[in-house]
């Protein structure tokens, strides 16, 4: 019997493929991240066995406990950090992750720059934007993105690949997706990470190159995450 996560994965993949085609986008235009936060190796292994290799975690510490062991058994794993990063964890984050999607302030940019040089590793980097201008949440304010992008490139020697957002709960996500896509286009950035279980097809329609799907693949999380 196929594990339910694998059936979910295949359904999400098929829907993304269909939406890419309906939106006249390239077949390989959007990468699916299976967000495995709160789920242990027993849940992740069926998805790896099914051939999927791209995963997202929101906590450095949790990822550090789970993924080095899985990487010994499976080749080609690509890990994305999608949760807030503290500067004292920048070293672990650079060591563990292939993409860090949550660069959102100068202190983090400086800490990453230092670690990237020290470790001679080059994780891809996205700037997280608070498209809903929520001061209590992660992400840089939209009007500061261009300056921050220049700071990252010019002061920190960081290569920024694109932008990421989490729209505010209760708002039409498509407006935020369109805003993020336009900001990325204006800065000539290719990667746009947006869309979660509830809205990933809208994100694909609006130009997402990365969607982050957790509960839609692994099922409901048994404990809430910050
Ligand atoms: C948890 C999380 C997701 C996945 O959420 P689901 O609704 O379970 O798909 C996507 N992005 C971020 C930043 C997350 O923290």
What would you report as the Rg, rounded to the nearest angstrom? Answer: 17 Å
Bound molecules: pyridoxal-5'-phosphate
Q: Quick one: biggest sheet?
A: 8 strands, parallel
Bulk shape: globular
What do the pLDDT scores average to? Answer: 96
SS class: alpha/beta
Helix segment tally: 9
Name the poorly predicted regions.
none
**H/E order of the elements?**
HEHEHEHEHEHEHEHEH
Measure the end-to-end span: 34 Å
Strand content: 15-25%
Total E-strand runs: 8
- As a percent range, the share of helical residues equals 40-55%
Strand order of the largest sheet: 7-6-5-4-3-2-1-8
Report what the structure shows:
By secondary structure, this protein is α/β, with parallel strands linked by helices. It is built from 9 helices and 8 strands. Helix 4 crosses helix 5 (106-119). The relative contact order is 0.15. The protein binds pyridoxal-5'-phosphate. Pyridoxal-5'-phosphate is lined by residues 35, 37, 58, 82-83, 166, 196-198, 212-216.
Task: Based on the model shown, name its key terms.
8-stranded parallel sheet; 226 residues
Question: How would the blueprint of this fold be written?
Answer:
Blueprint: H1 4-22, E1 31-35, H2 41-49, E2 54-57, H3 60-73, E3 78-81, H4 90-96, E4 99-103, H5 106-119, E5 124-129, H6 145-155, E6 160-165, H7 173-186, E7 191-193, H8 200-205, E8 210-213, H9 215-218
Parallel strand pairs: 1-2, 1-8, 2-3, 3-4, 4-5, 5-6, 6-7
Helix pairs in contact: 4-5
């Amino acid at each position: 019997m196929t594990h339910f996560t694998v059936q979910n994965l295949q359904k999400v993949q098929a829907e993304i493929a269909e939406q890419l085609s309906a939106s006249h986008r390239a077949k390989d235009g959007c990468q699916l991240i299976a967000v495995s936060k709160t789920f242990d190796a027993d849940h992740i292994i069926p998805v790896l066995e099914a051939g999927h290799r791209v995963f997202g975690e929101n906590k450095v510490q949790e990822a550090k406990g789970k993924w080095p062991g899985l990487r010994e058994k499976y080749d080609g794993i690509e890990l994305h950090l999608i949760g807030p990063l503290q500067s004292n964890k920048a070293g672990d984050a650079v060591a563990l992750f292939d993409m860090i999607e949550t660069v959102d302030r100068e202190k983090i940019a400086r800490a990453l720059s230092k670690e990237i040089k020290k470790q001679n590793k080059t994780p891809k980097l996205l700037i997280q934007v608070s498209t809903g201008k929520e001061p209590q949440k992660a992400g840089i304010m939209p009007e500061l993105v261009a300056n921050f992008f220049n700071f990252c490139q010019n002061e920190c020697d960081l290569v920024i690949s694109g932008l990421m957002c989490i729209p505010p709960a209760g708002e039409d996500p498509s407006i935020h997706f369109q805003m993020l896509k336009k900001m990325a286009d204006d800065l000539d950035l290719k990667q746009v990470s947006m869309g979660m279980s509830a809205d990933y097809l809208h994100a694909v329609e609006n130009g997402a190159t990365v969607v982050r799907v957790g509960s839609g693949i692994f099922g409901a999380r048994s404990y809430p995450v910050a």
